[in-house]
Amino acid sequence: MKNTYFTSEELELKNRAFLSGDAVKVSFFIRNSKLIMDEECYFFLMASMRKMRMNIPLTYTLEFFQNLFNTKVIEGEGVQNGIINFLVFRNSDGVILSKSTVSYYFEVDEMDDVLSIHQRPLELDLIKEINVNNNLLSNIRVHCPENIYGGIYAQENDLDDVILLNPNKRIARSTTGNLLFLEGNVIKIPKQSEGAYISPLLENFVTFLHKNNLSDTQEHEIIAFESQKAEEILLISDEKGIFSVKKIRNKTFESARFTELVESWRNSF
Asked: Which of 37, 56, 181, 225 is most exposed, with minimal Cβ within 10 Å?
């Protein structure tokens, strides 16, 4: 499904997503020709729109999105497994912005299984010349120049991604998702108050581990040096999928335990 996208109406250049980055993005997930975690993703979309003071249409119900994705993507395009990256943006048609209507755009990234770890592990590094905020809007996927800068920095330095710090020089996230650090019997995750993304995919994984007593998962304030102390690192991106981290600078990491945990989670669906 290369270059396949869907919109609520014909796109015009004069829209606030293009001109001002006035948009929010949330991912939905297809597995074995069915939507999974659709309620969690839907409620995250509604919360993101409220935080951006968007005018939420009465038609934006869970059933609306279920029918939309089933009709357009699963049945219409025959997608069996993939990630739907859904972007909703504000139009310039209201007297005041909070009363403006909204439109949407979404595209689909097909993959073998959204709940499997990608075969190619990642090489990361920390970037210190920029940082990401840790306020109310830092946790949702909105326009973020730091992500663009970090992505270019990674490309220019033959990296797959970079680790972004917050103003307190603690780990927030990568440009694409959240990081989990396995150290001993504890999985440490940066707190949302540190600048980490809210992630339905991550929350579902952590809830599964907790319910089945498979690990001790803790939210932490993590200083940059602690990335070197971890035994294994996992990156969970709602936009891209799940990846193991192989290398940060001169430190290499294993992946066996996270692979086993993700496999157990995958088999529970």
From this structure: 225
